[in-house]
């Protein structure tokens, strides 16, 4: 099992595309089993036994697992019983636990990923490439995935594994290649390095030490949400059910949860894209429940969407038009009904400068930027309008270490000035490191709360899967205080948020290591230098 | 950066040029297959269009086509397929002619009344489709195409001589009450072999509509919202665009412009509505021209001229023993080539830009590395 690590823009994705035949190398060779090959298309790669599990799953939701698997590989074992038998065989051999007749839309993220792996194996792959496979999984699911991968390895398959999460890489890989600016900078064995050294290899310089932060939580409520309820599917399960919370000025409220438990719906209701069936949303002093999206956003709600391609950008428009998106009626983008392209362009240049968006200019389309740079542009845009409330959904997903630290810094700086932040993230280290309070969302309800100073990823993980509820307390060995943690389900989460002041502890960096914790704050901005974004094509 | 911009321009021009060249090559093949000389056919078309009277006719027809294409393009920019431009234009022309024929007013007032009526009728007709879409989720493609048929039937009904139709002396074609002279939109007189022809004065209104379209789209917040909604509905919703309202507004705008399509003919030439002077199909031609001109006001102008040229030079082919359908075949081939060429060039351009951006960043990075090392 070989891991490839490197910042976004370091060339990982380009390398993977070359290996999978999606792109041709200008020079150099690829050898499989000692035999030199040239791969022109993905089908060449598949024929050579290379399979790729993409970061964004490529499955048709309305088809069954069986149909998805045979799609495009009908010639192997047909589309019926032979195919089903072969699938079962693979599934049993590697412990994938596949149900061939389940509809993909009914499957969770982890199951979908296993379907992707099965698809690749079904096509006879001996070499598996996994692009950021753990980004969307909770810790327990990550463990299960790694168990699957070890199974594959023991059967003699080769696994190439790309990740940002260095702890995982260290625990699972047999060999690690670090790439930076398009070249290999180091090949190391996991036994020889720790996460911090690996991170330093990745960014090419020493990382600053984590620093303790002061709490900035105040008494003034900025967002008060009361008993929000929304819809219900045919099983009567509600999408949102009695969701209440308050975020104060200067407070970061983190929401943990497995995706699809109502986070998207909560965001939709908060930005006004979807009306709630019941409950109220109060921003500052004003009841904004009936306000349309535009009025809310102009009233000071910044939004970093979870899917930047669908909700945050116009991919085929130039950067300066993307800078206008969402703030069309505000200065400097317009004067009255008239757009002010000159001022918008000038301000885009400022954002590109201040937020270190790496681009040759502001006339290129948003699609030409790498994922991290797109995200920096979005963060810059939202922060430029001095929001009172920032809704940040997975703000650093698919973003490299340098950009990640920068985005965290910007959120933290704005928080110091009184910004209230609703942080929704699947990255538990990010949640723990950035939040003043954490709530756990499960099946449309806020079922548990936790103090980020003491809670661990594992504990959050069990609440996210519904195994624990109520107030999560950390069980230190020998700690007298061992109550809670597994309070019966249905117990009301302790209301409101942490009292002001209690956040001080929360701000101490959790012991996750400088590389993984959001407290890594290179105050000198990106100390990585403009890296060769040889693969700006990634993440589109 | 400069390089990318220049390249963008080249690519933007490459697609239509490529499409027209391919279409010409293909139609040459077809002419040759019918046993005639393709070069001769093109020569005849060009020669014929060199005559001043043909040029006047081309300009006049292009004016009508231009308005039709702009009406369609407004919908396209918002991802709306207004197939009903054809019906909107005919019902608007008919009712505007009827209203204009029923009153006598001083010149400018009279014309304003007719134009406003035409715009309103067109907007109402397309607005029906807009409301159906926003309130009932009916696809505008289906509703507008049906409204075309409804418009045809309604016109036939209203044009009976017991209602709005009159039978001019010495004719068997029903028309509306002829407009008074006060509604004569002055044209530009051109002397052709001793006889005077007129270029529609309405051509200036068409140009103004094109400029207005450009400014509305690119210089107003409304236009930005409209383009955003067309480019990515999900992103537009998240950024606060009320997409339902945008659908309705762009349908109304599209229909309003569609109402103007018949006006050059009505005010500049026929001065009354008759089925023969306002043929069905102009709206569909508008769709083809909007595609050809890439929904861009300037591009549409070239597209409209090309289309009118092909239209007008067809009869001369017939006269010289060629099948006049060659022009129609060429029009069809141009549309197909254009659609294919645009998509190819668009994808190529995007990919190319991404590569360029990557390259430039890599170069900058290498420079930095060298500087640090030095």
UniProtKB/TrEMBL annotation, chain A:
UniProt cross-references to CDD domains, sorted A to Z? ABC_Carb_Monos_I, ABC_Carb_Monos_II
PROSITE patterns named among the record's database cross-references: ABC_TRANSPORTER_1, ABC_TRANSPORTER_2
Q: Which residues form the ABC transporter domain?
A: 1-206, 223-468
Which molecular function term from Gene Ontology is one that the record holds? ATP binding
Question: Which spans does this entry mark as compositional bias, Low complexity?
Answer: 483-540
In which domain of life is the source organism classified? Bacteria
UniProt KW keywords? ATP-binding, Nucleotide-binding, Repeat, Transport
- Gene3D superfamilies per UniProt: P-loop containing nucleotide triphosphate hydrolases
A Pfam family cross-referenced in the UniProt record is ABC_tran
Would the keyword Transferase be found if you checked this record's keyword annotation? no
Signal sequence span per UniProt?
A: none
Instruction: List the residue ranges of the region (Disordered).
Output: 472-540
SMART domains attached to this UniProt entry: AAA (SM00382)
Official protein name in the record: Heme ABC transporter ATP-binding protein
Q: What is the organism of origin for this protein? A: Wenjunlia vitaminophila
UniProtKB/TrEMBL annotation, chain B:
Q: Does the keyword Ligase apply?
A: no
Keywords annotated in UniProt: Cell membrane, Membrane, Transmembrane, Transmembrane helix
- Which GO molecular function annotation, any one, does this entry have? transmembrane transporter activity
Q: Does the keyword rRNA processing apply?
A: no
**CDD domains per the UniProt record, alphabetical:** TM_PBP1_transp_TpRbsC_like
Spell out the InterPro entries in the cross-references. Answer: ABC_transp_permease
Subcellular localization(s) per the UniProt record: Cell membrane
Annotated Gene Ontology cellular components are:
plasma membrane
Q: What is this protein called?
A: Sugar ABC transporter permease
Q: What is the lineage of its organism?
A: Bacteria, Bacillati, Actinomycetota, Actinomycetes, Kitasatosporales
